[in-house]
Amino acid sequence: MPDVVPMERITSKIYVIRDTRVLLDRDLAELYGVKTKILKQSVRRNITRFPEDFMFELTKEEFENWRSQFVTSNRDKMGLRYPPMAFTEQGVAMLSSVLNSDRAIQVNIAIMRAFTRLRQMLSTHEELKRKIEAMERKYDGQFRVVFEAIKQLIETKDKPQRKIGFEIKEPKAKYKKKRRKN
Q1: In a 10 Å sphere around its CB, with 0-12 CB exposed, 13-18 middle and 19+ buried, how is residue 25 labelled?
Q2: What are the residues whose beta carbons fall under 8 Å from the beta carbon of 33, sequence distance 6 or more?
Q3: Contact at 8 Å (CB) between 28 and 87?
Q4: pTM of the predicted structure, to 2 decimals
Q5: Could you tell me the pLDDT band of residue 45, with boundaries at 50, 70 and 90?
């Protein structure tokens, strides 16, 4: 069976909040094809299935910080009146037992695959970094320049931005006006 939801669509909705990768209720509702209100009601009816490490509600401060990352007017608050629920990977897995539909099951499978793929990508990056450091220790002085260049590519630094445009300098007067004596 082909993927119900493309992997890229899922991974673009995974946020890191409280040092944990989570999906928000509104994004999950969209993926499941239900209204956010229905998803929240189902979770609240089965709240014992969702301990703090499975699901948590964003604090007012977290909600404001998350919302400020998007360029939207404050008036509509992105359609949110209440802080959203954030679901960890285990919380998303638990949702399949609460939202009992074929689509929910297929979407959950796709989400679990997305989390697994994300973990694999992160571990590969760490593994590559360790290998480069080991090579650096082994070949120390011979390839120092190469390793420095690789490190600069891996580590992104904020560079001061150049000004765009040009400056207009006032021209100096070539001739001084002579005052007439009367």
Answers
A1: buried
A2: 103
A3: yes
A4: 0.58
A5: very high
